[in-house]
Amino acid sequence: MDRKELNKILGTNIKFLRRNTKVRNPENNKVKYMTQKQLANYMGKDCEQQVSKFELGINELSATQIYTISKLFGISTDLLYQDNFKHSYFSKQINNDIY
Fold first, then answer.
1. Cβ(45)–Cβ(99) under 8 Å?
2. What's this model's pTM, rounded to 2 decimal places?
């Protein structure tokens, strides 16, 4: 498997995790699915365009970014590279402000 394929798998899995994670807003107590902007803020990025490029497999993530993402979603880093991970029943809710 080459680098491009690995980036695509990683991006697909990050998108899957983000779309299956709910975040509770502490200000109004509403629960919504995580946006690219919320993930970007958690990762220390200033715009969701970077997250979009990660999810599409266009840009590569650093080891620190991969570690940060795995901690946010509560999974091991090796699961981020599993090709069939997107078919799992992952679901998570973050009950406080993640920033």
1. no
2. 0.84
